[in-house]
Amino acid sequence: MAKPTLWLRCEKKEFERRAALTPTTSKQLIDAGFDIVVERDEQRIFEDAEYEAVGCKLVDNNSWPTAPVTTPIIGLKELPESTDPLPHTHIQFAHCFKKQGGWSKVLSRFHRGGGTLYDLEFLNDENGRRVAAFGFHAGFAGAAAGALALASRRSGEDLGLLTPFENEDAMVSKVKELLGGSGKGVKALVIGALGRCGRGAVDLFRKIGLDEDDILKWDLAETAKGGPFPEILDVDIFVNCIYLTSKIPSFVTREQIIEAGKLRRLSVVVDVSCDTTNPFNPIPIYNINTTFDKPTVPVDVGGQNPPLSVISIDHLPTLLPREASEQFSADLLPSLLEFPNRQTARVWTDAEKLFREKLAEAAKVEGL
Ligand SMILES: NC(=O)c1ccc[n+]([C@@H]2O[C@H](COP(=O)([O-])OP(=O)(O)OC[C@H]3O[C@@H](n4cnc5c(N)ncnc54)[C@H](O)[C@@H]3O)[C@@H](O)[C@H]2O)c1
């Protein structure tokens, strides 16, 4: 019988250096009897040679359309826009199940090609929790970006271009260096501290040297009294990491910021949750997503008050591609090992059922 195979495609999205399979998880799959085909990719944080060394078969960049149609293709982000039919099975984040812009066009490519899409965002365990998510490193990188913005602010500047770090140590060292050797003395508040992103943010603050008492960790119990919260104005960096599900009172408002005047300590807000355009956004002091080349947006604080900026980047784990990929891929591995039994393995049958439902909706919309 032919060995189960996975084909790791290249990523085409700008700045995306992460990978769905790492050399570590590729080796584990090979040891379990898989063939792993890897497209050469200069953009990826892992060297082609690292995959070759563990027994992967290297093929040309972006050659997956020529792969046998029975070979499943695994990647991370969306495929470049096109109208080409998709006959393969794809495992990836496709961002088209929640009726995002262009959703029906993307799905119509699968309809016309007869392919199947397993969306990584919708692979859930028996409790409905994602089997693999990037939250921890989103929080970690978000907190680091916040600390870098604070360091810039202390020098009277705005934070400039952010580029992915080679690894976590490089990120931690850079942040400490720019804060004058350590983050000691900085005070931070993390809301949603018990979640994936929140735990990552707390971890970064510990690693750059904040005193434990200077890392305020709030979750549902602490916000139950209802905002706005004056405590937010009393820290240097506020990181929001909640999973927003319904309308809640604002955590912080512009009126409150203006009223605090020059007494405000708060210098940077990092909105990891990034519910920027959600009408229930509990941080209604900004309204755009920021980017790696312009990471901060200023808040209108009124008069001569000290500046305040918001970081609202919605793809933060990209800043830490190596560790983020390793963690995500390791969490995904048990499900990938079950992939050859996808006709019966619950995680995959549930994901395929969802795909079929969305495909039918898209076909209607597209008149197919
Ligand atoms: N910016 C990015 O790059 C990026 C990357 C990954 C995830 N995210 C987003 O971050 C958010 C959190 O994701 P996660 O995986 O950490 O979720 P999670 O479910 O693991 O954690 C969310 C936490 O928020 C807490 N929470 C919910 N409502 C709260 C409230 N009103 N007050 C206080 N705490 C509250 C929960 O109790 C939980 O501990 C999501 O919106 C996700 O889409 C952003």
CATH class division of the largest domain: Alpha Beta
Order of helices and strands: EHEHEEEHEHHEHEHEHEEEHH
Compute the number of structural domains. 2
The proportion of residues forming helix, as a percent range, comes to: 25-40%
Strand sequence of the main sheet, in spatial order? 3-2-1-4-5-6
Count the DSSP helices. Answer: 10
Q: Main β-sheet, in a few words?
A: 6 strands, parallel
Number of strands: 12
By CATH, the architecture of the largest domain is named: 3-Layer(aba) Sandwich
Structure overview:
- The chain is an alpha/beta fold.
- It has two domains: 5-132 and 320-366, Rossmann fold, CATH 3.40.50.720; 135-319, 3-Layer(aba) Sandwich (Rossmann fold), CATH 3.40.50.720.
- Helix content is 32%, strand content 12%.
- It has ten helices and twelve strands.
- A six-stranded parallel sheet has the order 3-2-1-4-5-6.
- Helix 1 runs parallel beside helix 9 (321-337), helix 4 runs parallel beside helix 5 (168-178) and helix 4 crosses helix 6.
- The longest helix has 21 residues, at 346-366.
- It is globular and about 70 Å long.
- The two termini are 37 Å apart.
- The model has no long low-confidence stretch (mean pLDDT 96).
- Bound molecules: nicotinamide-adenine-dinucleotide.
- The site of nicotinamide-adenine-dinucleotide has 26 residues, from helix 4, helix 6 and helix 7.
Descriptive keywords:
368 residues; alpha/beta; Rossmann fold; 6-stranded mixed beta sheet; 10 helices
